[in-house]
Every structure is written in structure tokens, then in C-alpha cells.
Amino acid sequence: MTCITVFCGSAEGYNEVYRETAFQVGETLAAHNIALVYGGAKVGLMGAVADGCLQQNGKVIGVIPYFLKTKEIAHDGITEMIVVDTMHERKLKMHELSDGIIALPGGWGTMEELFEMLTWSQLGLHKKPIGLLNINGFYDALKALCDNMVQEGFLNEYVNSTLLISDSITTLLEMMNNYEAPPTPKWLNKERI
Fold first, then answer.
1. pLDDT band at residue 69, thresholds of 50, 70 and 90?
2. To the nearest 10°, the Cα dihedral for 34, 134, 41, 173?
3. Is 101 contained in some domain?
4. What is d(CA 68, CA 59) in angstroms, rounded to the nearest whole number?
5. Out of 48, 60, 97, 102, which could bridge 78 as a Cys pair, Cβ 3.0 to 4.6 Å?
6. Is 149 a member of any domain?
7. Distance (Å, whole) CA 181 – CA 108
8. Tell me, what's the pLDDT at 192?
């Protein structure tokens, strides 16, 4: 992988471990010569992951909608800033630029971005690996929810297993490098879910 999109919060959270780990993620991507694509902000975990990558002379590409750039949250020290008109364009551009997606902790925006990428994968619109960095057990409840979706018949177990989860960025990158997308997207196979 040469470029990874990271979705994460514009807040730092209450526990310092979130910011510290986001910074380490940026450092790790740079150390592996993987460019970072992210939401373009200087605040929250977004700013931390960008700063970590920049600290190690990594390439950082921000994608930000114009209305957020004008609110003075845009990171002015990154390698490249792409300004788009809408949130949807932002997500699409981030997806187009990357070979894989990692979600760090965040709020509704992070969840929306993550689930759209998962849905696109399920429908066969892309074959990129999608990982959750489960910092401080943040995604334990989401994993339980996904398992419940399988148990209740709303999600195929094989599709659920394509969401890669680890509490280590190094392990997660290894999992992503070894990822193989499902051979047949939803709706095109005999099993409907």
C-alpha cells in the first residue's frame, strides 16, 4: 500500500491515549512510506495523525470542504490540500486517492465515513482493506453490534470478517497488506445476505 485514508475525530477525546496513538499512527505510516490522506483539519485526532506523519517527513494530503476551510480549522503545514465543495465529494476523493482505509476513534462523522466505505465494499464497488484501530477498546461495542447483525441475520459472517480490527497499528497494517476482498459482492451471489 502506498496511500491510506484515515478517518478520525475532529475532537481529541478525554483520554490522552487517543491523541498519542493518532500521532503514532502518522509516524508509522511515514516510516512505512505510506502517504496519509485525511480530512485536512489541524484539530483533534485529525491534526494529531497529520502532525505525526509530518514529524517523520511523511506525505500528508488533506481533503476539506470549502465551508470547513473557511472556519480556520484547515491544517496549513501539510504536503497538499485539496478543497472540495461538499462532504460527499470529500469522501469520494479520499477514497479515490487511497489503497486502504483506517478508522481511528471519532464521532458520527467518522462512523458515517466508515460505514459508507464498508457498504461500498460489500456491494463490490471497491476491494480495498478497511481497518479499525481499536484504541483503548473504543470499538469493542461496534464489534459487538456487527456480531449481533450477523446473529440476527442482517449481515453475512464472511462480509463481517472483512472489517479488520486490531489495537496495534503495525498488526493492522500487516492485516491490510494480506487482505483479500470477497470474490462476489452482495446481490450477485446466491446468498442474499
1. confident
2. 10
3. yes
4. 22
5. 60
6. no
7. 26
8. 47
- Give yes or no for a contact between 25 and 56, defined as CB atoms under 8 angstroms apart: no
- pLDDT over 70, % of the chain: 94
Question: How many domains is the chain built from?
Answer: 1
Express each pLDDT in 128-161 by its tens digit.
999 999 999 999 999 999 999 999 999 988 889 9
Whether this prediction's pTM lies above 0.85 is answered by: yes
CA distance 64 to 90: 6
Q: Give the pLDDT mean for 70-74.
A: 79
Q: Measured at the alpha carbon of residue 21, what is the angle toward residues 32 and 28, in degrees to the nearest 5? A: 5
Looking up residue 8, the CATH number of its domain turns out to be 3.40.50.450
Domain assignment of residue 62, yes or no: yes
174: helix, coil or strand?
Answer: helix
CA dihedral 32, 35, 37, 41 (to 10 degrees): 90
Neighbours of 152 (CB within 10 A): 8
Tell me which residue range forms the domain holding 12. 3-138+162-177
